[in-house]
Amino acid sequence: MQTTALLLSVIFSSVGLGYFIYGKKQQQSVPLICGLALMIYPYFIDSAALMSAIGILLIAVPRFIRL
Predict the structure, then answer these.
(1) Angle at Cα 3 formed by Cα 22 and Cα 62, nearest 5°?
(2) Contact status, residue 31 vs residue 23, Cβ threshold 8 Å
(3) The 3-state secondary structure of the chain, one letter per residue
(4) pLDDT, tens digit, for every residue of 16-53?
(5) Non-local CB neighbours of 24 within 8 Å, separated by 6+ positions
(6) Pairing with 24, which of 9, 14, 15, 38 sits 20 to 30 Å away (CA)?
(7) Please, which residues have CB within 8 angstroms of residue 48's CB and are 6 or more apart in sequence?
(8) 36, 51, 58: which is closest to 2 by C-alpha?
């Protein structure tokens, strides 16, 4: 595993934990699901560029989709 990928996985997992806690407290499903996805997806992707693209997309989803 590369150092960049490891650092990105820690950053995106931390943001995911924040989204998960926020979604759980506010009873909102979009931040909850995005938080779970942000915490899980770094385990399956090794490329730093792909990890960054998916992470930024998942961080932006709750901003634009509200259910």
Answers:
(1) 25
(2) yes
(3) CCHHHHHHHHHHHHHHHHHHHHHHHHCCHHHHHHHHHHHHHHHCCCCHHHHHHHHHHHHHHHHHCCC
(4) 999 999 999 999 999 999 999 999 999 999 889 999 99
(5) 32
(6) 9
(7) 2, 4, 5, 8
(8) 51
**Residue type at 43?**
Y
Dig out the tokens for 21 from the structure: 């806690």
Burial 14-28 (b: 16+ CB within 10 A, else e): ebbeebbeebeeeee
